[in-house]
């Protein structure tokens, strides 16, 4: 018996090795035959058939694709074959053919005289259509290396690792502090206080205010109390057991209502129950003791082919002050695998009422979406002749096509979803600001608080997974926000969307290369500066807004009462730096759409206790015409000239 097991084990190992060898052979066969192609990183990135920086891990994740919060999963370090010249803790190339230096591409600013950022183009394996690369230039090959750190405290997604490597960065341990990108849990006070101005981390301290079901409800409920219907963007909730009596009274008042109970910090549908107002005594006693949140259940979801679905929308925040929000133009649509009914007898059926992938994948009726294997969705993707979704997961693009076919207004829904996202983020700004100050040990410093090493309001960014349900009147409802959305690529569709998302986010964030990587060849990466514009130094460009909170308040007072045109004419260098940076970011946002600041930003002013100087400047700029202003000839001499007008 034992020897048979051992034989099977050896057989499996041989088969695994053979599979890996075949994969490498196939990649080699696809590699460019022209020497010139393989040596020019720009061509490498744009042409199909090259595998310049592709690594053996660039395959589909085996990890489940739950699109949900992934609890931290300590994992062993990445296997790496270190070349002898490497410093301790620094990663080498993993290709078995020997060390191969990674190549960095830089993306020029659209403004003259401003330094470039690192460009993270899409891996060929993810099958996403490459973004326009006309502003990309290779970095100085003999320049210094750039590094990232991915700690073992969180799950390691191939989408993240592959894009960081493809972007030319090498991995180091977090303690070395040599990295420019830190992909980990929330930065600790010790870490954040050591941050230099160019270092970036993938979490804001304190974003659990958004990610925990009870805390987000508390933040949104406060806003609902103040602003009423305008803030009814999530179903009414009660945090149990504290608010048990309030819920019990509501349940008795609304005898026809349905409810959904959820544990506060769980995900993937774990522990969720759907119930009617008519709750048996025993269950009531249980609910009165258990920690969780109970919400009004939305009984009338929009159905496709009779099935309930929800949407996973990827939202990127670059800073909370100024609030800079981008929404990915692609997201996921997740279907329940059983036909929907709101009859009380069906409430136990999780595959009818919950749309989580982790719940529905267990149903033999679950159909994988294979789109993304080579080409983006075809027009006919969607429903079959019987009106049933052909796959249990769609991309947002497929949903858009479906809406158009059914004469439903997707654009109106998209606008309403952007509004929901902005309102949600404003509702958590205060607690996040408090956590920012606490982490830096500077009480009442506001977002102007800086770390001793140079951490600033732009040092962190975050990718959020907003789960949104649409009802039959096409109103979007926020179900929850995941602060660690799954980036696993369990299907070709997931792989395309998530790999592209990570690449777009990192390019947007703006990883600043050391000057030695680009200053040697300024004509190629640095648009010549004309007149008396002085090119900003790397650190300066990455340092965020440098004036104190008091000074900002004074300047805000001066601008607040002015018309947008007048306010813009009063902008000083600090204000223009904010505007130029925001516009430069938008011009390199790839598939991410800027949702805030936006031209109708004035409607959100009331929701902040006090509109900050940074938000005010960007709002006035938007109201005065936004990017069109840069085409005007009457800008002050210190404003850099915009020399490129096409978005990347
Ligand atoms: P989890 O973090 O466990 O995934 P969610 O809040 O996302 O918890 O809920 C899981 C699923 O339950 C959702 O994807 C959705 O299909 C359904 N659901 C959650 N809240 C509601 C609600 N208030 N009304 C209707 N359906 C809901």
| Rg, Cα atoms, Å | 26 Å
Total beta strands: 19
Shape: globular
Q: How many distinct helices?
A: 21
Bound molecules: adenosine-5'-diphosphate
Helix content: 25-40%
Query: End-to-end distance, in Å?
Result: 61 Å
Q: Averaged pLDDT, please?
A: 84
Supply the helix-strand structural class: alpha+beta
Percent range for β-strand residues: 5-15%
The biggest sheet amounts to: 8 strands, antiparallel
Which blocks of ≥5 consecutive residues have pLDDT under 50?
Answer: 20-60, 62-85, 92-96, 530-539
Structural account:
The chain is built from 21 helices and 19 strands. It has 648 residues and is of the alpha+beta class. About 12% of the residues have low confidence. Adenosine-5'-diphosphate binds next to β9, β17 and β18.
Keywords:
648 residues; alpha+beta; eight-stranded antiparallel beta sheet; 19 strands; 14% strand; binds adenosine-5'-diphosphate
Strand and helix map with partners:
Blueprint: H1 2-30, H2 35-39, H3 41-46, E1 105-107, E2 117-119, E3 136-138, E4 146-150, H4 158-166, E5 169-171, E6 181-183, H5 189-194, E7 200-201, H6 208-211, H7 213-227, E8 237-240, H8 244-253, E9 258-262, E10 273-276, H9 281-287, E11 292-296, E12 303-304, E13 307-320, E14 323-328, E15 332-335, H10 350-353, H11 357-360, E16 393-395, H12 396-405, H13 410-427, H14 429-440, E17 462-470, E18 476-482, H15 492-509, H16 522-525, H17 538-541, H18 549-560, H19 564-570, H20 573-586, E19 592-596, H21 613-623
Parallel strand pairs: 4-5, 4-6, 6-7
Antiparallel strand pairs: 1-2, 1-3, 8-11, 9-10, 9-11, 12-13, 13-14, 13-15, 13-17, 14-19, 15-16, 17-18
Helix pairs in contact: 4-15, 18-21, 19-21, 20-21
The chain binds adenosine-5'-diphosphate.
Residues 68, 235, 260, 262, 266-270, 272, 295, 297-298, 310, 354-356, 467, 469, 479-480 line the site of adenosine-5'-diphosphate (ADP).
């Amino acid at each position: 018996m034992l020897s048979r097991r051992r034989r099977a084990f050896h057989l499996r190992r041989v088969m695994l090795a053979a599979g890996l060898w075949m994969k490498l052979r196939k990649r080699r066969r696809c590699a460019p035959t022209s020497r010139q192609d393989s040596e020019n990183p720009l061509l490498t990135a744009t042409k199909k058939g090259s595998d310049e920086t592709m690594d053996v891990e660039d395959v589909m994740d085996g990890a489940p694709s739950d699109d949900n919060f992934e609890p931290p999963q300590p994992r062993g370090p990445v296997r790496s074959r270190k070349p002898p010249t490497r410093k301790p803790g620094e990663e080498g190339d993993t290709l078995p053919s020997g060390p191969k230096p990674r190549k960095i591409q830089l993306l020029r600013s659209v403004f003259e005289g401003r330094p470039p950022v690192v460009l993270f183009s899409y891996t060929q394996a993810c099958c996403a259509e490459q973004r326009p690369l006309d502003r990309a230039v290779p970095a100085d090959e003999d320049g210094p290396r750039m590094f990232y750190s991915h700690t073992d405290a969180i799950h390691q997604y191939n989408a993240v690792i592959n894009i960081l490597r493809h972007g030319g960065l090498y991995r180091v341990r977090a303690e070395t502090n040599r990295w420019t990108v830190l992909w980990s849990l929330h930065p600790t006070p010790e870490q954040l206080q050591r941050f230099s101005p160019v270092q970036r981390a993938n979490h804001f301290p304190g974003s659990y205010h958004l990610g925990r079901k009870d805390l987000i409800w508390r933040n949104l409920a406060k806003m609902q109390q103040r602003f009423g219907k305008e803030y009814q963007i999530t179903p009414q909730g009660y945090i149990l057991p504290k608010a048990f009596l309030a819920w019990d009274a509501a349940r008795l008042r609304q005898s026809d209502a349905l409810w959904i109970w959820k544990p506060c910090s769980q995900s993937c549908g774990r522990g969720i129950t759907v119930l009617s107002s008519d709750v048996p005594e025993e269950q009531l006693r249980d609910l009165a003791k258990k920690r969780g949140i109970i919400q009004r259940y939305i009984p009338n979801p929009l159905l496709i082919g009779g099935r309930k679905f929800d949407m996973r929308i990827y939202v990127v925040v670059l800073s909370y002050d100024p609030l800079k929000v981008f929404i990915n133009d692609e997201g996921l649509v997740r279907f329940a695998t059983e036909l929907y009914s709101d009859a009380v007898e069906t409430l136990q059926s999780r595959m009818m009422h919950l749309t989580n992938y982790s719940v529905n994948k267990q149903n033999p009726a679950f159909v994988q979406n294979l789109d993304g294997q080579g080409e983006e969705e075809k027009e006919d993707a969607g429903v079959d002749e019987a009106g049933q979704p052909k796959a249990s997961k769609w991309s947002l693009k497929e949903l858009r096509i479906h809406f158009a076919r059914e004469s439903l207004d997707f654009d109106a829904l998209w606008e309403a979803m952007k509004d929901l996202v902005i309102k949600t983020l404003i509702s958590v700004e205060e607690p996040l600001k408090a956590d920012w100050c606490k982490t830096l040990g500077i009480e009442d410093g506001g977002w102007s608080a800086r770390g001793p090493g140079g951490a600033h309001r732009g040092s962190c960014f975050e990718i959020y997974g907003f789960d949104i349900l649409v009802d039959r009147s096409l109103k979007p409802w926020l179900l929850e926000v995941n602060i660690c959305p799954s980036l696993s690529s369990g299907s070709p569709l997931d792989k395309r969307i998530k790999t592209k998302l990570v690449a777009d986010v990192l390019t947007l964030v703006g990883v600043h290369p050391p000057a030695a990587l680009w200053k040697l060849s300024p004509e190629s990466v640095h648009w010549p500066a004309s007149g008396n514009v002085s090119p900003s130094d790397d650190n300066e460009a990455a340092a965020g807004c440098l004036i104190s909170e008091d000074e900002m308040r004074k300047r805000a007072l001066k601008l607040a009462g002015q018309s947008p045109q007048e306010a813009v004419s009063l902008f000083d260098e600090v204000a223009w730096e904010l505007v130029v940076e925001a516009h430069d970011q938008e011009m390199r946002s790839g598939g991410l759409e800027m949702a805030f600041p936006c031209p109708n930003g004035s409607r959100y002013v009331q929701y902040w206790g006090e509109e900050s100087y940074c938000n005010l400047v960007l709002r006035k700029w938007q109201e005065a015409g936004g990017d069109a202003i840069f085409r005007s000839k009457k800008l002050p001499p210190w404003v850099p000239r915009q020399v490129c007008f096409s978005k990347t």
